[in-house]
Design a protein that fits this description.
Rossmann fold; two-stranded antiparallel sheet; 10 helices; alpha/beta
Length: 270
């Protein structure tokens, strides 16, 4: 995609095709670039290696702290109960896991599952300082092949990570597989702002301010150029809802946050 096209959201180029079909036709995306399946995993790993040490700080700075409200709301909508076994897919530094650990109680358990050890290591000191940190475990693994038994968890969450998978549908299928019947799935992910003027301002911020801050504060402009591009190639809420229903989730709903910058999808395993 040319630089002059950067402000065009992928849905404006789809011509009636779903995001799922577009991915099948073109191959995996890394930002706006179509790459091979083998190449995408390596690029994503390198991307998170480069930002792990400043990941939480940059999230807070770039979102003006709003991401904490989004995550709190997402975990609340997951409707966790004391004693629940919870899987935090692509859990990274563990923000969702720490919020969930408060809700599952002393008899519950939360597992952070991520393929990047540096990201999990960056968040473990925060978990160690939390009064509920002992309820959190860590597993390094591939979200498209989750190393858990069928029907083994009460809830599966993913926050700002599913779009980085080579095959996002496989990640959701694995979440569906490991959930117990009636178990709840929650996905928190970035999306397209609803209001045109707000969307224009968001594009300006995303493609100019964010990469500059990434270069100045983290030493990588590329990582914070990839971020807004990856958001714009992700399925829109109605499209993602259709994907989730096709996988087998029922009672799928979504809730837009902050004018649609982020969206929470929830569903149950039938």
């Amino acid at each position: 995609m040319k630089s002059s096209d950067k402000y065009v959201w992928l849905d404006e180029q789809r011509n009636g095709r779903s995001a799922n079909r577009l991915r099948a036709d073109q191959g995996p995306f890394f930002g706006y670039e179509t790459v091979s399946e083998a190449d995408k995993a390596g690029r994503v790993l390198k991307h998170f290696d480069s930002v792990a040490h400043r990941y939480d700080f940059m999230n807070t700075l770039l979102s003006f702290g709003i991401h904490y409200i989004w995550k709190y709301t997402a975990v609340r909508l997951t409707d966790l109960k004391p004693g629940d076994r919870v899987l935090d897919v692509c859990g990274g530094t563990g923000d969702l896991a720490r919020l969930a650990s408060k809700r599952v109680g002393s008899s519950g358990r939360v597992t952070v599952y991520d393929f990047n050890w540096d990201m999990m290591a960056a968040g473990r000191p925060k978990s160690a300082r939390s009064p509920h940190g002992r309820r959190i475990g860590y597993v390094q693994g591939d979200a498209e092949r989750i190393a858990l038994a069928d029907n083994s968890v009460d809830a599966a969450m993913v926050g700002f990570g599913i779009r980085n998978l080579t095959h996002l549908e496989e990640g959701f299928r694995e979440m569906h597989r490991v959930l117990k019947p009636g178990g709840k799935m929650m996905c928190l992910e970035f999306s397209k702002p609803s209001a045109p003027l707000f969307r224009w301002l968001y594009d300006l911020y995303s493609f100019h301010v964010m990469p500059w801050l990434g270069e100045v504060l983290v030493g990588t402009r590329a990582a914070y150029t990839h971020l807004p591009e990856s958001i714009r190639t992700f399925p829109l809420p109605d499209e993602l809802s259709a994907i989730l229903r096709g996988i087998g989730f029922v009672n799928v709903t979504y809730r837009r946050l902050t004018n649609g910058i982020a969206v929470i999808h929830v569903g149950r395993k039938g």
